[in-house]
Structures are given as C-alpha cells and as structure tokens.
Design a protein that fits this description.
Sugar_transporter_CS, cell membrane, symporter activity, Putative proline/betaine transporter, Growth Hormone, Chain: A, mainly alpha, 446 residues
C-alpha cells in the first residue's frame, strides 16, 4: 500500500484483524509441519517398523520432505488465484485444506492395523499439506503488507511471522507436555494423535476470521483499473523470472535455518543421547526466544533497512554455523544443550523477521502473490523440505555430528549472494500506480 500523504489509512482495529487473519493461517501451516517434525521418532516406529532404526528415521524424514515436493504446484495454483481472483479466496482455501489434511493424519491407523496403506495414506495427506502450504505463506504476507505503508512493512510482516514461529512453540509445547504426562507406550499408542487433531479447531478459527475480511486495497486498486492479469503464472515466468530466482535466493537461509534450528535440533539432541522430553524442552526454550527476536527484527528492518540486515545475518551465520554445531555436539548437560540450541536459533530468527517485507518490496503488485509463492515454494522444496533428511544423512555418511552445519552454511551463502541484489531490485520496483484508497468499510474495520 502506498504511503503517500493524504491517503486514509486503515483503522487500528482493522489492522489488528488483518494481522490476526494473516498470522492464523501461517500458524496452522507451520504448526502442522512442526508437529510432524517433532514426532518423527515416534512416527518412524509406527509407519516404518520393519526397517532398521536409523533407516526408519530417515524414511520418516523423507515423508516430512515429500510435502515440499508439491509446494511449487500449490504456489502456482493458489498464487494464481490470489493475483487473478483475489488474496482473500486464496487464503480461505489454503487454511481449510491445510487443517483438514493435518487432522486426517491424526486419525490415520498405523502399519500394524492396515499394513502398507498406512505409509501410503501418510504420504497422501502430507502431499495435501504441501499443496496448501505452497500458496499460504506468500499470499498471507502479501495480504498483510498491502494494507501497510512501506516504512512499517517490516513491523507488520514480522507480526504475521510471529504466528508462524509461535506455532512452533505450540507444537513443541504440546509434544513436550504429552511426553511428560504419558508413558512411552501411551504416547506411541494414542498420544501422538492429539497434536495433529488440534489443527482442526485452529483451522476452523482461521477459516472464520479470514471469511469475514475484505480484499486488500492494492488488489482492489488493480481491479478498479482493470489491471488484474489474465494469466499471472505466464506473466511471472515470461517477464519476472529473475525475481523468482531472487526470491528463491533470499528464502534459502530462511528455509534451511528455520528447519535446522527449530525442528531438526530436537531430533539431533535425541541422537546425542538426550531424552525426547529434554530435547523438546531445549527446542521450546529456543523457539520462545525466537518469538521475541522476530518481534524485534521486523521493526529494526524498518529503521536500519532490509538490505543491511539480510546481508549481515546471512554472513554471520556462514561464519558461526560450524562453531555453534561444535558447541552443540559437545554439550554434556541439559543446560549446555539448551544454551547452544538457543544460540543456534538467534540469527535464523532475526532473518525470518526481515525476509517477508523484503519479498514484497521487490515485486510488482500485479503478480506479487504468484512470484512470491513460486520463489518461496522452490526454496522450500529444494532446501527447506530436505533439510531434516540432508542433515541426518550428513551425520550418518560422515560420522561427524557437526556435519549439519555445512548445509546451514550453504543456505546462508546462497542468501548472502541474493542479498547483494535486493537493494537494486527494490529500486527498480517503481510505484507508478495511484495510491489505493481505503474504503469507509475498511477504515472502520467492519
């Protein structure tokens, strides 16, 4: 949204609803993925019991990653809907599909009950999750940013991002609580289902909130000027493929850092000999710190600029990733493990706060949701989804517990290169459109 003087801004009440509506979908999306990640050790025994423990865990990680395979397809589908029909219809569809497929995993019988159909259905529901996730994040961030003046977009999108990170806390907390209250037998029998089933009420709340909101001002302005693209996908690849590559590059560290620091770390600590409860506790504390850092990172990017922070955070991670894994792999006490897990998540959390506004500001409004969704989904598919599997494979192949640092360094290096082009790309996005007026209905927050 333009920040031109004289344009009536949406009311604070509306902005709170926009933030909540955008964040709730990201909360459901990340919660669904995180729950699977935190329960991979349990799920590997239920759905791949005939395999060796290490191979079964790798199989469970592979199923975690399979949801990312279809994310590009979801980005094309829902990104196109958002740019051609509207941001709101895309947001309603993604949250409904995501919540439904996750709840379905919660009622899925294990191999002992239905044989080979158990892992097949698990893969199917993970694919549906991935399809929805392909359009959720980019569309939600686009929607929130289009209500916000440029100078405040970092703060706004970081508030939406808080929902995503806080959902990790919810997922890890629910697994920790159940692991503490239930015996291992009860957890394996039925306790693991509860976190998946919680996605249904979360999704219903998100569906209700999103169905009540108006369309974004920038999309309404495009409609009023009859500038909505007939084929957003075709236009995106024909005229803006370089921007898709740029979004992919910016997202590389966000994807790798996010899943290694806040999901893989739990399984990594279990591999080091800590109990599931201890490993989950360390992850919960790390995520709680990350929530605070995300809240701070967005406003700081409004003050200091996106480019310097993207550059500094990716460069810092490239330098510090290996030393951090040396410390984490050497942790002998729970206190040391918690401290190192928290430190591992600091730079990824700050980067996750800065990146969303950066995506929006280098993209033209006509195809913003599609280019955003496609670039981000490709990064998720090629880097984020395989992060758990690659990290575990590196450890097993090399025999070196510090090896996951190499993948984290790779993601940071890709984003470091991309950050060098962000400032130039943002300058090329010329806002030649008149400022989108905010309707009386929007100003009142109705």
């Amino acid at each position: 949204m333009s920040s031109s003087p004289g344009v009536s801004a949406p009311s604070p009440a509306l902005m709170r609803r926009v933030v909540f509506a955008s964040a709730i979908g990201n909360t459901v999306e990340t919660y669904d993925y995180a729950v699977y990640g935190f329960l991979t050790v349990v799920l590997s025994k239920l759905f791949f019991p005939a395999q060796q423990p290490g191979v079964a865990l790798l199989s469970a990680f592979a199923v975690f990653g399979v949801a990312f395979v279809v994310r590009p397809l979801g980005s094309l589908l829902f990104g196109s809907i958002a740019d051609r029909i509207g941001r709101k219809p895309a947001l309603v569809a993604t949250v409904a599909l995501m919540a439904g497929s996750t709840a379905a995993i919660g009622v899925l019988p294990p191999v002992a009950s239905i044989g080979v159909w158990a892992p097949i259905l698990l893969v199917l529901f993970r694919l549906l999750q991935g399809l929805a996730a392909g359009g959720e994040y980019g569309t939600a961030m686009t929607y929130a940013a289009e209500f916000t003046p440029r100078g405040k977009r970092g703060a706004m999108t970081s508030r939406v991002q808080i929902g995503s990170v806080a959902s990790l806390l919810l997922a890890a907390g629910s697994v920790l609580l159940l692991s503490t209250l239930l015996t291992p037998a009860a957890m394996a029998s039925w306790g693991w289902r509860i976190p998946f089933l919680l996605a249904l009420p979360l999704g219903l709340v998100g569906l209700y909130i999103r169905s009540k909101l108006d369309e974004s001002p920038e999309f309404r302005a495009l409609e009023n000027r009859t500038q909505v693209p007939a084929s957003p996908v075709k236009e995106s690849f024909a005229a803006h493929w370089r921007l898709i590559v740029l979004i992919f590059g910016i997202a590389a560290f966000q994807q790798v850092g996010y899943y290694i620091a806040f999901t893989y770390a739990q399984a990594y600590l279990i591999r080091l000999g800590f109990s599931q409860s201890q490993a989950t506790l360390a992850t919960v504390i790390s995520i709680a710190v990350a929530v605070v850092l995300v809240a701070l990172g967005g406003p700081l990017s409004d003050r200091w600029g996106r480019w310097p922070m993207l550059l500094g955070l990716s460069a810092g991670t490239f330098v510090l990733a290996y030393p951090l894994f040396i410390g984490l792999s050497s942790a002998k006490s729970l206190g040391a493990a918690i401290a190192m897990t928290v430190l591992l998540g600091v730079l990824p959390a700050l980067y996750t706060a800065v990146a969303p506004a950066s995506y929006v500001e280098v993209l033209p409004a006509r195809v913003r949701a599609t280019v955003f969704a496609v670039g981000f989904a490709l990064a998720a598919t090629l880097l984020g989804g395989p992060a758990l599997y690659v990290s575990q494979t590196l450890v097993q192949v090399t025999g070196d517990n510090r090896a996951p640092a190499l993948f984290l360094m790779f993601g940071a290096l890709v984003s470091l290169v991309a950050a060098l082009f962000v400032r130039r790309a943002a300058k090329r996005v010329v806002d030649s459109e008149p400022a989108p007026a905010v309707s009386e209905r929007s100003r009142e927050g109705v």
